[in-house]
Amino acid sequence: STDAYALGMLTADTTATLTDATSWRKSATPVFGPSAANGTYGVGHNGFFRSVDGREDWLLYHANPQAGQGCADNRSVRMQRFTWRPDGTPDFGTPVSLTLVQKRPSGE
Q: What is the pTM of this model?
């Protein structure tokens, strides 16, 4: 991966035929990407989960702590909570620093 590796987003209408490639629209810009200020480079390979009590949504991803590290053994798995915008799209925010202490997912 490169330092600029990031997550894009595809969307489709709720009535769309999801097996039809023309039903999908790709975001014009990444929806979650690197942050030099927070030491997150090459952000990618994401997954999602909901907290045990079902009240929070969380993003899992990997990132490097420094620029120029590619796909070597420096990547670490990270997670952070995300929210939803009024239009129903996710707001992933900015990747947080490894040094930021985060609360556990609710219900744990």
A: 0.89
